[in-house]
Amino acid sequence: ALGGRAIAPEPSDALRARVDDAGHVLVGVGARTERLGPPGDRYFAPRVGPEERFVAFQGLSSGLYLHDLDRGVTYHLAQGGGHARFDPAGRWLVFERLEDDGHVFTAGDVMIVDLQPEVPAMAPLVATDALERAPDLAGGRLSYLRGNEGVEVVVAELAFTR
To answer: Residue 133 to residues 85, 113, 127, 130: CA-CA distances in angstroms?
Structure first.
């Protein structure tokens, strides 16, 4: 109980993703787990998509990955990629692709991945001269941060043609 309210336990058959002490992403149900990610990096921030088909995760030095559990294929989405968010229907993934000079972010674009085709299709969703980062997508609305100092929150309605 939290503050006098009961907290529902997570369903025992839900797909879970976690990172072990060695920095490997483990995904599975119960004792059945699969290790994701190419060797040679430490991984963090795994997220399971709402339909439990895709897992997004980040490598400390290699960037953002997307793993298709149904096909057993891992896609490298972007060096400097992060902050992956699935839309609630599981059709789209948005993320930030950032560049830095070692001290501050110097460029950043919001990217989108269409998860419906056999091979996920990636494209810039917001690519301007401004620094864009930390996207989220829900209910046809995209929100993200613009700027490095004096940050503003941008919210935009999206119309998908696919």
So the answer is: 12, 15, 10, 10
**Residue 66 corresponds to which amino acid?**
L
Q: Alpha carbon 48 to chain centroid distance?
A: 9
Residue with token string 């960037």: 63
* Residue 142 neighbours by CB under 8 Å, 6+ apart: 94, 110, 125, 126, 135, 136, 154, 155, 156, 157, 158
pLDDT of 88-116, one tens digit each? 999 999 999 998 888 888 889 999 999 99
Cα-Cα-Cα-Cα dihedral sign, residues 117, 115, 59, 137: positive
Specify the pTM.
0.85
C-alpha to C-alpha distances, 115 to 1, 50, 56, 90, 154, nearest whole angstrom: 38, 12, 12, 8, 24
Closest CA to 142 of 160, 121, 115: 160
Tokens describing residue 9: 């336990």
Structure tokens at 32: 């059945």
What does the DSSP 8-state code read for residue 103? Answer: S
Bridge-based pairing state of the strands 81-86 and 32-36 = unpaired
Which tokens go with 120?
């996920």
> Of 77, 61, 58, nearest to 119 (Cα)?
77
